[in-house]
Amino acid sequence: xxxxxVIFACLLTAAIGLSACTKNDSEVEITVPAPSNRSVVEVSGxxxxxxTWKESEKYLLKGFxxxxxxxxxxxxxxxIILGDKITKGTLIVKPGGKLIARGTAAKPxxxxxxxxxxxxxxxxxxGLIMLGNARVNKTPATIEGENVSTFGGSNDxxxxxxxxxxxxxxxxxxxxxxxxxxxxxxGGVGSGTEIDYVQVSYxxxxxxxxxxxxxxxxxxxxYRNMDDDFDTDWGYSGNVQFALSIRDPQVAxxxxxxxxxxxxxxxxxxxxxxxxxxxxxxxxVSAFIADGTVDKKYRSAMRIRRNSAISVINSxxxxxxxxxxxxxxxxxxxxxxxxxxxxxxxxxVVTGMLKPIVTGDETMLKDATRKNQxxxxxxxxxxxxxxxxxxxxxxxxxxxxxxxxxAGVGLPTxxxxxxxxxxxxxxxxxxxxxxxxxQNTDY
Length: 443
Known about the structure:
By secondary structure, this protein is mainly beta. It is built from three helices and 30 strands.
């Protein structure tokens, strides 16, 4: 009977376009067609019932595609989702809907441009938007980039699904003049959601933006994006640990309404006292601008403004944010948040900028107990040659004698214990699942 079941499995998988063979009487090995041989399924409108997208096919997003409340979209490991340029293809998970995109290191799930290899560009499609029912400090909260769907509520443990081993490439199309969609937008997403091992590359706006909510995230990569890398607004209060940004020095947001920062953070646009206050905590972040002449639109490594109280801990910033510099506590309210202890700015290494501290209480920031280092030479830190390269994979693991190992402070509750400064120790968690040349990848 076992052999008959194996033969039946082989025949069935062959009938649907896959190939199968037996390694032994109890195991069937299935080979998925190469990307170029997968059929393309066009998707538009609303997903209202539980749906699974298969690795054996490619999916083309046409216009705004919605996962409606009560529906779950499950995406198999290795699946490729393409965004249509003409219709500004975008995937939006509405409050009460779920996206289960659980890839693997060997088979990441890829959201990317539908343009041909070699002709992809920033803003070829919309992006991925996830909305939930966690608290937000703005009512009504309507999501940026689509300007219709509302989100937020009172359920901080809300679950919008899973993003694990996922890449998002060439998104950020402008839906209006100077109003682009982020690579990954999270609005009111709750702590029941899992986000781990995500790479956003070549996005036409921010790589990641959180609007309220308290979802946690780990192992995030922002690679060669246009505007900010990590943008927090409207009361976001989650924890983010292990995050990497690498920037092209000649690619920054040229809109008169914006400039490019590694971090940009507001409580809200008015800098009000609305609650919950933006108070996210980021730990073990590395942000690099590659070598070369830096565009003047690069403003600050950390632009904390408008009554934000985010924390940045045990993190490394190397490069020339030229318009302002390193740490910018912009405005009286944000400066007071630091002075009164609402946020933590400790274990920071800031180098390569003319002004490592732009604004803020320098005496407090340089207190020895904080273990901050402003203006130390990057060449003394024990970074591996090629850590910020733009051609090929960067060399991210630290040397065994690096001064960044164990040089930080203890982390608050909710984080994995780690006193290294920056996103990496002597191992590289980007191995295997990231892509440093999506322009020339066969999708």
